[in-house]
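Hypothesis: this fold can be encoded by more than one sequence.
Test: take the structure tokens below, design a sequence, compare later.
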């Protein structure tokens, strides 16, 4: 088959049907199998082979709330097998959706491995998501089982469970803790299940194994579906942009469970043999203590992580000299952040991707510093891109346009297939919604964003969801949410509102309203601007570029 059979580029403003999307996806799947990006192994196979090949590689788990735990790959794999059998005893099998709303505790990681190995679909949910988000995700995904901690970070999950509405598909709730609640089992009760003889299901590497919800331009989060093959293809590229020192291949990770990066960490060590240090959440001093003591050579995260480490190191509170590489992504990255890493003797590497396609391009250690600091890097193996104008015509290098992508780690569509119609073009090209420029050497630079989202500390927040919540307040007539620059988080939420006649409002009242709705704290506006009217286009659309120019250094209330 000719590669250009998937490349109908001559038509501007191309429309696509769901049938065509499915046919394009199948042709690409067969092509990536033929080219060796896809194989016959499942994630369970990768975990088994890793346990055999690197049995002594370790995974360390640290938390401020719990004792340290360390497992070898051999131990964690065989423990996962016992959980597979218990899940089977509960009736969990291929295709069932199992939601896990946990910190990065060892139970969450090993249970997640077991969920995928049993053939079920893992649905990680960020722990900070409140009742409203959780209810929507569980109902939309038709989750059969939910796994939560008893309590973490002052969040009482038992209270959260009591607040959930009807979920007819939810058959099992597992509480990782000692508390016993009607309709749920605690950790001891789960371990007490007499497992049947283990019989591993016959699982296709092209079957769905991961479902993640991400915010976009619509108010409702979108379910992103990945297969064993899409995740394995992504993870095999890790050594290109996450290099390790052969003398000290220890990797430190403190990203929250529920992100695509944490899902990929489930299998990274099994492919590379590197040991891993996981902390359940980012605490700069605690992570600095771990770096000082364990001396990892590689770490990753949003820029906020490194900025807070540097602040402590400058005060003489720890030592990061063991770090040789730090990979940053998930939010906007300034050249100064990469340059500061360089000054500290750390090679800073930028990555660019999305939940839908975890890594499109990345900086590499051999790249010159000006490329690592000022661009997103080069395409990973198998990744193809087009850069198009508003009519979907390709533009020349050096010209800006929307980035279209496809590649082996591209997701296989949204849970709601209707959303695919706006996301894909003929040929299997996915619209990223980002405006980029490609230089003559193939390096990409993101220069703008088409999608109306706010990226706070690596979290994609839907502006529309925030605006809908704002307009639900009785004092607010109209609202617009934008991202305001922040040195630590990249962006924070700023809300512009117009009020109903005779009404007033404060930032505190808005935040209380969001809390009542059960929305995650990250979605709460941290600055409030009250306006009489909004700047608008001739068609009446709010001009958010003008609102950004109006931003004041401190929030207002009225």
């Amino acid at each position: 088959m000719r590669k250009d059979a998937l490349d109908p580029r001559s038509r501007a403003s191309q429309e696509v049907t769901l049938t065509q999307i499915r046919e394009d996806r199948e042709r690409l799947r067969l092509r990536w199998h033929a080219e060796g990006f896809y194989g016959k192994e499942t994630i369970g196979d990768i975990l088994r082979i890793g346990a055999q090949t690197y049995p002594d590689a370790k995974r360390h788990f640290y938390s401020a709330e719990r004792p340290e735990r360390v497992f070898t790959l051999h131990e964690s794999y065989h423990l996962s097998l016992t959980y597979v059998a218990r899940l089977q005893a509960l009736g969990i099998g291929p295709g069932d959706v199992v939601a896990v709303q946990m910190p990065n505790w060892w139970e969450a990681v090993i249970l997640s491995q077991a969920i995928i190995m049993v053939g079920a679909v893992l649905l990680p949910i960020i722990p900070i998501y409140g009742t409203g988000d959780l209810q929507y995700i569980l109902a939309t995904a038709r989750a059969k089982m939910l796994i939560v901690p008893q309590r973490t970070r002052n969040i009482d999950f038992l209270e959260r469970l009591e607040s959930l509405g009807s979920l007819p598909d939810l058959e099992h709730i597992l509480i990782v803790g000692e508390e016993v609640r009607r309709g749920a089992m605690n950790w001891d009760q789960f371990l007490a299940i007499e497992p049947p003889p283990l019989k591993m299901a016959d699982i296709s590497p092209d079957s769905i194994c991961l479902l993640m919800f991400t915010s976009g331009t619509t108010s409702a989060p979108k379910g992103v579906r990945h297969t064993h093959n899409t995740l394995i293809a992504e993870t095999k590229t890790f050594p290109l942009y996450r290099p390790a020192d052969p003398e000290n291949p220890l990797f430190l990770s403190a990203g929250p469970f529920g992100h695509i990066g944490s899902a990929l960490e489930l299998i990274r060590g099994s492919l590379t043999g590197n040991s891993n240090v996981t902390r359940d959440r980012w605490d700069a001093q605690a992570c600095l203590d771990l770096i000082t003591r364990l001396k990892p050579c590689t770490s990753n995260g949003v820029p906020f992580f490194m900025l807070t480490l540097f602040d402590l190191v400058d005060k003489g509170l720890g030592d990061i000299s063991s770090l040789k590489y730090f990979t940053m992504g998930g939010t906007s990255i300034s050249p100064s952040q990469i340059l500061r890493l360089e000054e500290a003797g750390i090679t800073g590497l930028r990555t660019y991707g999305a939940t839908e396609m975890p890594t499109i391009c990345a900086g590499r250690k051999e790249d010159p510093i000006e490329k690592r600091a000022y661009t997103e890097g080069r395409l990973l193996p198998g990744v193809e891109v087009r850069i198009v104008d508003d009519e979907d015509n390709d533009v020349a290098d050096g010209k800006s346009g929307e980035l279209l992508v496809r590649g082996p780690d591209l997701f296989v569509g949204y849970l709601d297939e209707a959303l695919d119609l706006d996301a894909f073009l003929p040929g299997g090209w996915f619209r990223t919604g980002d405006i980029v420029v490609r230089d003559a050497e193939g390096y990409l630079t993101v220069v703008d964003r088409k999608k109306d989202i706010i990226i706070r500390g690596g979290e994609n927040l839907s502006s529309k969801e925030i605006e809908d919540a704002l307009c639900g307040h009785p004092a607010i007539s109209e609202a617009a949410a934008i991202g305001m620059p922040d040195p630590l988080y990249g962006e924070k939420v700023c809300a512009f509102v117009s009020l109903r006649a005779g009404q007033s409002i404060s930032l505190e009242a808005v935040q209380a309203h969001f809390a009542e709705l059960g929305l995650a704290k990250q979605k709460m506006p941290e600055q409030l601007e009250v306006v009489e009217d909004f700047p608008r286009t001739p068609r009446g659309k709010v001009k958010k570029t003008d609102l950004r120019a109006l931003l004041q250094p401190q929030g207002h209330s009225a």
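The two ends are 64 Å apart (CA to CA). Residues 43-281 form a domain with the Rossmann fold fold (CATH 3.40.50.12780).
Hypothesis status: open.
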